[in-house]
Amino acid sequence: MTEQLDLSTLENAINSLKEAIAVVSDDVWFKQQSSAVQHTLIAGVIQNFEFVYEISVKMLRRQLEQDAASLDEVDSYSFRDMMRTAGEKGLVRNVEAWFSYRTLRNITSHTYDHQKAKTVYQASYAFVLDAQDLLERINERNQ
């Protein structure tokens, strides 16, 4: 029997992202904040996005390693191969969305631009749902 994955870090990170999104989504309250506070809160959502993305990919890779015939099989995967395999195995619903999230993650790590930050922030709403779905699917495999 394979060892169960500890998904608590991913679960906590997703909850943190959900909380950050909830704070920023309170339009009335958010618009009452200064521009500096608004930018800081949005930066918090983006930072949570980055953290959840990294942990999601790590947990996905670990799950695929557990499911694989050999570790070498998964180690040889490119990111795109890993996501396609995850889609084939029912761990990810929308592989293309995860390709997009990777692009957004790379944007945030290489440059800061207000418009790019806004794009990542807006994508966080869909991303958190996909990350939650991934968590649930991996969790089912670890029961």
UniProtKB/TrEMBL annotation:
Q: What's the name of the protein? A: Nucleotidyltransferase
Q: Which InterPro entries match?
A: HepT (IPR010235)
Record NCBIfam families: HI0074 (TIGR01987)
Q: Which species is this UniProt entry from?
A: Nitrincola tibetensis
